[in-house]
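Hi, here's the filled form for the chain we discussed.

Project: internal
Contact: R.S.
Residues: 137
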Amino acid sequence: MSSPSWNIMFVDDDRDFLDAQAAYFGSRGHTVHTVESTQEALDLLETVTPDIIFLDLMMERYDSGFRMAYGLRKDERFAHTPIVMLSGVARETGQRFDQEGEGLLAWSRLDRFIDKPATGKQLLGVAEELLTGEDPS
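And the returned structure, exactly as it came back:
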């Protein structure tokens, strides 16, 4: 049985991270769209409908990712698209977001919050879980 091919969007201001994810996911047969800002992402979303969006928290502003995710959830086209927030905040500041119960995920309407650095393998596992409902481990 062949694995499904997904349309994946990465929004991050780290070009090296984007290139690594494009290579990793692309080599596994997925279509990968990478953009370096929320505005580029919004422009691309006029023509592309991703199956899942990986979104950096801090780009143009310290809360760019939250702002974009909030806006996407209000748009019927993306209301049910899995959104995974990526952030190096814990690594840079030692502060971790509460991801349980009525914490961050419930408030932000994100599907996952992943601390950076994150590997392609880790992100692929998250995508598999969110898009197929199966735990890849």
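Let me know if anything looks off before we file it.
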